Structures are given as structure tokens and as C-alpha cells.
Amino acid sequence: MAKFICFMIIVILAPLLFEGGYIMNVLVFAGINTMLAIALNLLLGYAGQISLGHAGFFGIGAYLSGIMTTVFNLNPWFVISAASVATGLFAFLLGFPVLKLKGHYLAMATLGLGIIIYIIFNETIDYTGGPSGLSGIPQLSVGSFVFDSDIRNYYLVWGVTVVIMLLALNLSESRVGRALRAIHDSEIAARVVGINTRLLKVQIFAVSAMISSVAGSLYAHSVTFISPASFGFNFSVELLTMVVIGGLGSIYGSFLGALLLTLLPEFLRGANDYDIVIYGALLMLMLMFMPGGLARGIPELLNRFKNSLKGSGNA
Amino acid sequence: MQFDQLLQFFLSGVATGAIYALIGIGFSIIYNSTGIINFAQGEFVMLGGLLALSFTELLKLPLWAAIPCAIAVSTLVGALFERLAIRPLRRPTPINLVIITIGGSILIRGISMLIWGKDTHALPPFSGEEPVIIGGATVMPQHIWIVGITLLLISINKFYFFHTISGKAMRACAYNRRAAGLVGIDVRRMVLFSFIISSAFGSVAGIIVAPLTMTAYDVGVMLGLKGFCAAIIGGMSSGMATVAGGLLLGILESMGAGLISSGYKDAISFIILLLILFFRPQGLFGKSESERV
Amino acid sequence: MLEVSGITQVFSGVTALDNVSFSVSKNAVTGIIGPNGAGKTTLFNIITGIYSQTSGKVFMEKRDISGFPPEKLAKLGLVRTFQNIELFGSMTAIENVMLGMHVRSAGGIAACSLKMPWISREERRVSEEALYWLDFTGISDIGSVTAGNLPFGKGRVLEIARAIASRPRIILMDEPAAGLNSQETILLAGLILKIRDLGITVILVEHDMELVMDICDRIIVLNLGTKLAEGSPRDIQENPEVITAYLGDDRE
How is domain B3-128+142-291 classified at the CATH fold level? Predict the structure, then answer.
């Protein structure tokens, strides 16, 4: 809990360091990516079930919000919750056949699913605007208070992120979290102790999709313009990279991974084309040399460093 | 709908289908000897096309010389990939293998983007652009090259697996890795071999398709996935079932694009992929264990 | 307690079990023995819902449980252990036992995410009781050790602790003594009797004849997929057909 309060204080105070500016805009995306990474991590890091189609769920949230508020003029807050429920339900129904698959086959099926969703975004031009995108999505507001600046969006997005993070932390440390990890370790043993693995996998898939949908809605309202390119296979892979770099099965790790991967391209400005090379290299190196991700790798390194200091002190 | 139009769709479907089959066989060879689905498979298709282009344009090699060079280089990349990424993996669980091969895939794609840029390139056709008329449908000579080379490679593949010592050893690994190891087969070398063969297959597919569809640093993703669909339809066989899968996919796509909508063309393959995975994960043609290599 | 009726299992043309029937009485230790290939493990996998049989039925207290999946059987109070030990390798021993209590605790995704007050109480109860089961099985010293790092013998006991933490009515053990040294086997025998004294029906498949003869109240002998004999350890030891099946027919 102390860790979480520290985290919250950092989130609240961070804007003071930057005094608005461009970096605030980047941090809004970092918040959205953190939500997405947590969502994927619940599925991949805890239950051990891979998804290469999460960008699709993110996109469904974004497009439902975009279309329902611009074309049908519905209340944005209502749409955000309805979209999340709808996406969750969609994932739940789809989850039964999809999560029957394991390992590589599951990866391919979710990938295929993500691409089908992406193609639908591109082709249903009447609603989505097709490849050229959907613009004029309203900013969120409460009464007369409009989330129209980076700093306001920052607090909006991070407010939601912090809540989702707390829920995810609670979940991961609970009976359900334990059952998820049990599925990861040995599905047959999990069944023998009475866990309905099939249902639980589908449920967590749905929860993960719901969180992704909320992230998508917030994304749509804060940037006010969306196009299919943000929801393709590459973004699914980017999410995967965040989770792996942060640490599979660590909620704080997902935050670190998301933050790092959102900030990285900003530091590489000018060398923009290198980011895809760096993602690939990071993904591979991390898996080979720090399979626990940053969340476990950093403390481990610090320990080793301390020990080596002690060692040299004794000598 | 006129007959010659249907025939047209059919024939161009056969040519793309042959490409998918070649890529799919690449997937199957690795899967059967290692249990790995190599997500980087598509990148070797891309490398084949772009390398052939560089050998002809930069080094001014004639096409007949550039092609073997391109195959050799992409095969080398495939071998390095196995040695540097797959073999050192400490915990080769399916998820870790998926992640590492995806990592490799975007690394190769990224480096290719730095080398060749983001533009699309065209490789010259192997023998002119004078179309051939078959029963009212026009066929490019390149289509014929594609089908011919695919048939040739599949025959060589078959010969290798059934009539050579190392091919038989690889089949033994596919049946039972431990038993293969116990009778003295160097299983790790066979894994390396499977990466070499399948990257060679992938690069050939990339070279022969490049004159037809153009090529760029990012063509590998889609082609790779289509190849995987073919392999899944064929039940991960590295024989005729996957060829049939590829052809089926190519023809359905070409018909779908012509008769329904070209925008949804790619969706067709993925819907087929999902349906097969959900309802017939053993492939469309049932179990044909004898063909599993 | 448990009744197996006319179980037949055919694997692609090969009959692994042929019309096997028997019943197991309550609060007793029943051993299933037989030479290799007799179909013991197949029978186990059918009773515990891992395989589904070609024909025949399984009843638990008169209720037809044929074809129930393992998770449903666990809820009804039928659990098992595995010959090769299936632990949750990345988790600590105590977490493994807490998972054993999964069916006896409550809390879904929503309640757990919101950390309702009763969830915390439940969690405390589960962790306290898990300590009791570690103590009961004599492995309270390894509570915080990661299961994957445990030596084989301890792992086996932990798997049993996890199984009984669900307070089952029937526990099936697949070769519990396999891979144990003689010291560990003696402890295991004591533990099995202690479990029976809790009022749990124990069924085990075992190759260690000494163990089987020592602790079983009743023994069923399988050979080549059929039931060869059934009776008390003494009956079985004196049964000529059983002796022939084990030692081969030397008189020819």
C-alpha cells in the first residue's frame, strides 16, 4: 500500500516538474499505454495467455466513443461505459473459442482477430471515415469544465489509470490472482484443484478487453481524431513489448514498460526511424537477459551491485 | 459473371496461392522439427525480394546470378537468427518463443527499413511482360514462373525428406525429438537445418512474387500470415496438404476480391484462419501423419 | 463411496480397459495394482475426468459422475495427485496449499478487485488454514519455499497437502511412492493412514508392493485391461492368478 501511495504522489506531482509543455501531452499517452499494458499483463503475465490483438479492443473503444458521440450525439460518459461493457461482452463471447487454443495457435488467432478488426475500421468508411480517420470527437467535460488542455487531460487519464491500477493490484494479490497464476504454471493442476480454467481465462480476457476499451475511449476524447493506423498489428506488438520490458506478472512493471516505451521515441527524435529497430532489439535482449523485466531486473541488479561492493570492501 | 472472368480470378489465385504454399511450408518445416511457430517467417520473404533487387541494381548482377546470392544471404540471416535468438533462450516456453520470434521479426524489418527505406520497389519480371492467353484469361509469364518454381521446390523438398539421410533424420526429429537424440541424431543441428531450409523457401517466395506485386520492407507481415493460414489449413503438413491450403486460400482471396470487395480481401484469409483454428485445428484435410515432417 | 461400472476404453483400436467394475468403500484405503500396461493409470485418468471413457460409468455416492471435468469433480470432493507431481512451480508452498482450498473459498473478479472487507477476512482464513495443512503433512518448514525448487520428496508431500486442503471425500493418488527413498516411503505410509483417519477415502495406484500390502484395506488387481482379482491384501498375496500375472507362468 505504501508503494501505491508513493506512486500516486508521483503521479499527482509530476506535472509540477514540467510546467505544462509538450511533455504533458506525451505523459497523457503514457497513462493510456499504462492502462493498456496493465490490461494485457493481466492476461499474459498472470494467466499466461498471449494476445496479439489487443490493439483491436483499444480501437473498438476509441471508435465506439468517436462514432457514438459524433454521429449519434450520445453522452460521452455514457458511451465510455457502454463501449466498455460492449467490448467486454464481445471479448467474452469470442473468448470461448479463442482461448481454447494454446501457445502459438492462440497467438495466431488473436493476431488474426486484431487484423480483422483493423480491416473493419478501414472498410466501414461510412462510420469510421476509413483510412483517413474520424475527426471532431468532442473533448470530455463535466458541467462547464472541459478537459481541453494537456494538463487537464493528464489528470483525467491518470486519474482513471490510478484507479485501474489499484483494482488490478487488488485482483493480482487475491484468490483470483492466485488462480490466474495457477493456470499459467500448470493448467491441469489448476483444474484438479477446482479452478474452472476455461471460464476464468475467458473472464480475464473480457476484463482485459474492457480496460482496453476504456483506454481507447479516453484516447479518442483526448486527441479528438482517430485513424485505423493507431490500432494495427504494430501497436499490439508495441503493447507486448511494454509488458515484457516492464515485467510479465508485475503491475508496476507495466507502468514502467509503458512509460519507457512512450518516452523512448521522444528521446530518439531525429532518429525516429530507429525506434522499430530498438523495439525489436529490446524485446529480444530483455527476454534473453532479463526475463523478469525491469520490475524484477532492476532490484536484482541493485542487489548484485551491493554485493559486489561488499565483496570488494572485504577484500 | 462470365466464365473467362472467373477463370482469370482462378488463375491469378493459383499463382498467389503457390506463394502462400511456399511460405506455409517454411512454417511447417520449423514447426514440425521444433514445435516453434516462427513469427519472423514473413521477414525472409521480404528479405528475398529486396536482396535480389539490391544485387541486380547495386551490384549490377544479372537476375540469374542475383537470385542465388539473395537466397544465400537470407538463408544466412535465418541461420544466424536460430543461433543468436532461438538457441540461447533459457526458458523456451511457447510464449517466450512467440515473443522472441516477434522481436526478431521487427528487428529484421526495422533494419531493412533503414537499408531500403520505406518506398516500394519492383524487381524486373523473369521473362518479359508479354501476357499469355489461356482460355480467354490473360496470364503473366511471371505467374507461370511462380507455379513452376513452386512445383520444383516442393518436389525437391519431398525428395530431401524421404530420400536423403539428413532429411530422414529431420523427419525422425519431427516424430520424436528425444528418441531421435537417443539414436544419435544431432537434434540441435536439425533445428538449425530447419531454419535454413525454411528461410530459403521464404526468400524464394519473396523473389518470385516481387516482380508481380512489388516489394517493400513491410510486406513480410501480411505474406507471412497468409503463409501461416495456408499451413494451418494444411494441418501444418510440409507436403501437399499445405500446397492445397495455399491454393485454396489464393483462389478464395482472388475470387473474393473480384466478386465481393477488394478491401475485405485480406479479411477473408483471417476469417478462414479463425474458423479452421476453432473448428478443425488439425487442418482441413484431417490427420495425415505420414506427411508431417 | 465410489463405484466403477463396466468401464471400457479403446485407444485407436487398442483396448486399454475392458469392462472393469468395482466399488470402493468409505474411509478405507484401496490399492489398485497390476503389471505395467494393466491400465491402472488409464483407469485413474477416466475416474478423474482427464480422459473420457469409451463406455461405462463412474458413480460417487450413487451419483453418476461419468465424464465430469476435473474442476467439477474437485467441487464434489474428488481430487487426485499425479505420478510426475503437478505443482504450481513459480509459487510458494503455502500458495500451493491455498490453491488447494480454492473450492472452499469465495470471491470473484469484481469482489477481489474492489477488495471487499470480507475478501480480506477470507484471505486470512485461507492462509491460516493452509499453515495447518502444511503442519499436518509435516512440511511446515518449507512454507515460503518456491515449489519449483523443492526436492522431489517434499514436492510429493506438498502435492498431497494441496489435495487434502480442499477437504475432499475421495483422494486418488497415482504412484505416490514413485521416486521416494525408503525413509520417505515410511513417512508417506503414515501420512496416508492419517488422511484416512480424517474420514477421507483413499485410492492409490502403486508399484511398491510392501507399501500396498501394509496400508491398503482392500486391493484390486488389474491385468491387461481387465480386473483379475479383488480382496484383502492377504487374499491377493495368496491368489495364484495374481502370482502368475506378476511372475509369469514358469510351469510351461
Answer: ABC transporter involved in vitamin B12 uptake, BtuC (1.10.3470)
